[in-house]
Design brief:
The chain has 94 residues and is of the alpha+beta class. Helix content is 22%, strand content 22%. It has 3 helices and 7 strands; from the N terminus they run βαβααβββββ. The strands form 2 sheets. It has a 5-stranded mixed sheet. A two-stranded antiparallel ribbon has the order 3-4. It starts with a strand and ends in a 10-residue tail after the last strand.
Length: 94
């Protein structure tokens, strides 16, 4: 399974796309654990008090897992996983 990482998360992991050992039938949480095991430096940025930090968005197929089954959602073939940190906008044109 692949994770797409954005902003500083990609910098920390060393790539924007990271393949992990997770397959259909596993959960989003399993895939996240595999990502954090493969790239331990991400753990401090993503996990807070034992759970995903409120400011980190975990997406499955473009939708926040918070709106569905959370990290317990079962992965299916073709699922796209992504992690987004908080992002602020750029300057307004003059």
């Amino acid at each position: 399974m692949e994770w797409k990482l954005f902003a500083d998360l990609a910098e920390i992991a060393g790539d924007r796309v990271v393949t992990v050992d997770a397959a259909p039938g596993d959960t989003v949480g399993d895939a996240l654990d595999a990502l954090l095991d493969a790239h331990p430096a991400l753990r401090d940025r993503v996990i807070e008090d034992g759970t995903v930090a409120d400011h980190i968005n975990v997406l499955r197929n473009g939708r926040s897992v918070r709106h569905d089954e959370g990290l317990d959602a079962t992965l299916e073939a073709g699922d796209e996983l992504a992690l987004f940190p908080p992002v602020s906008g750029g300057a307004v044109g003059r």
